[in-house]
Design brief:
431 residues; alpha+beta; FAD/NAD(P)-binding domain; Alpha-Beta Plaits; four-stranded antiparallel β-sheet; 11 helices; 23 strands; globular; binds flavin-adenine dinucleotide
Length: 431
């Protein structure tokens, strides 16, 4: 946008909202919802900003239809929850809506909670209806003002134009570290080249399938063997990918197409999406030629493809692979993670490296605090981590936990980790 087109109106002109907050959270995915609700529950006047008109992040805009990382990895009659707090509130809202929230034990040896994206949107609306929390949906962060080592204000664009909002503390839960990036000081270690991070995928919801279709891997293999496995930037996973049932509906969730994109450049994303759509269409057309699958169709794709990794902000104590290998718990942990390090190195090439010790690890507060700014906290996909640790901590259950911690820390300010942990526990977090 040309700079003349940006009109910064007075913050006070925001309809029904004051322009000054204790905490502003950018991004309404798992981490951002948890950060905003956590901050509001800690007594902070909080604003949550989200580009889309609904919450949920990748779960709802990219059809990533399983919350992972809520339960300890090992098989059990009753799986042990490791994420409480706002994540548990979201689960309770889904359950109250009649959605099945009992986790299932997947073939990869992990517990997942399957999702329907429409129910998830409503459950998160309810989760985010906390007292003291204002929402600005259809609103994108476009600029940040920095002064004296602190972020003092941000500019947000919605269809009315651009306005300024101010806060004492900020949480960047944008997935892409958009706020850290706009301060102009945090490094972007990824994306020096196109393939620096984990590859993106093109999740598809398939309708019109017969009962038991998810188990008929032979039909899928026959169908996919008949088509070219690559269209431009999109490639079928060699194993056909994951196809799984969704709660309470006949549709299936299919995660079988990987796409090449740097995830940050609109033109690049558009090409990857176009090619992903074309390949999904071909693959489902081929599936329709299998007996019993004649009525299969592409029921939905998200407004976004699924981006696994883009930018990371620099933090004070990044999470390290060795801590996950050893399953290190810590006295100062502000969140727990447990998902194996799920490393995608190319189409169909996925490696799961287990978490050691008792199967969980503690996230230090320094992984959530920006290196350069005292009042900028990171949650979810933006946390500080090396590549392998990130491959675990990025999942949405853990994103609820790290977002919750970032929101509470932002709300409480410089009080020390003991007070942050105490407030998290008061709000039901598991530490
Ligand atoms: C293909 C794929 C499969 C995956 N499978 C699983 C799985 O099965 N289970 C699991 O738990 N995890 C899975 N993940 C990982 C997981 O989806 C993400 O790591 C997780 O969503 C991170 O949560 P988040 O809240 O940090 O970010 P996101 O969910 O990405 O949310 C960030 C939000 O910020 C908003 N935003 C961004 N920029 C701005 C801006 N400038 N202004 C305002 N808002 C902004 C976005 O619109 C978005 O809603 C998968 C990821 C992919 C891509």
């Amino acid at each position: 946008m040309a700079s003349e087109a940006i009109v910064t109106t007075s913050a006070a002109s925001m309809t029904g909202r004051s322009g000054t907050y204790d905490v502003i959270v950018v991004g309404g995915g798992s981490a951002g919802v948890a950060a905003a609700v956590g901050a509001a529950q800690a007594g902070a006047r909080t604003l949550l900003i989200e580009s889309y008109g609904f919450l949920g992040g990748a779960a709802t805009h990219s059809l990533v239809l399983a919350w992972c990382g809520f339960y300890a990895q090992r098989p059990a009659v009753t799986p042990a929850p490791l994420v409480g707090g706002v994540g548990a509130q979201a689960l309770a809202h889904l359950h109250a809506m009649g959605v099945e929230t009992a986790p299932y034990y997947s073939s990869t040896g992990n517990w997942n909670i399957r999702l329907d994206q429409e129910a998830t949107k409503v459950a998160l609306d309810r989760t985010a209806s906390a007292r003291g929390l204002d929402m600005a949906l259809h609103s994108s962060l476009v600029a940040a003002d920095v002064s004296g080592g602190r972020i003092v204000a941000i500019r947000v664009q919605d269809p009315r134009g651009v306005r300024e909002v101010r806060a004492s503390a900020f949480v960047d839960a944008s997935g892409d570290a958009a706020l850290a990036f706009l301060t102009g000081t945090s490094p972007c270690p990824l994306h020096a080249g196109r393939h620096a991070g984990q590859p993106a995928s093109y999740p598809v919801r398939i309708g019109g399938l017969p009962p038991g279709a998810a188990r008929d891997k032979a039909a899928r293999a026959r169908a996919f063997a008949r088509i070219e496995p690559r269209i431009g930037r999109a490639e079928l996973r060699t194993d056909g990918g994951i196809m799984t049932t969704l709660p309470g509906v006949a549709d299936l969730w299919w995660l079988g197409i990987e796409v090449e994109t740097n995830g940050l450049d609109g033109d690049d994303l558009a090409v990857a999406e176009r090619d992903g759509r074309a390949l999904a269409w071909h693959a489902i057309a081929a599936l329709r030629r299998e007996p019993g699958f004649e009525t299969a169709y592409v029921a939905a794709t998200g407004p976004n493809i699924g981006i696994r990794e883009t930018r990371h902000a620099a933090t004070r104590e990044p999470l390290r692979e060795i801590a996950l290998i050893e399953g290190r718990m810590r006295d100062d942990a502000v969140a727990l993670g447990c998902w194996p390090m799920e490393i995608h190195s190319g189409p169909g090439r996925v490696e799961y490296r287990p978490i050691g010790g008792a199967g969980a690890f503690g996230v230090p507060p320094g992984a959530l605090q920006a290196a350069d700014f005292d009042n900028l906290w990171l949650g979810g996909r933006t946390l500080g981590a090396d590549a392998a640790a990130y491959a675990s901590a990025r999942v949405m259950g853990t994103a609820f936990a790290t977002g919750h911690a970032a929101g509470v820390a932002a709300a409480l300010g410089a009080v020390g980790v003991a007070a942050i942990r105490a407030e998290l526990v008061r709000q039901g977090a598991i530490l």
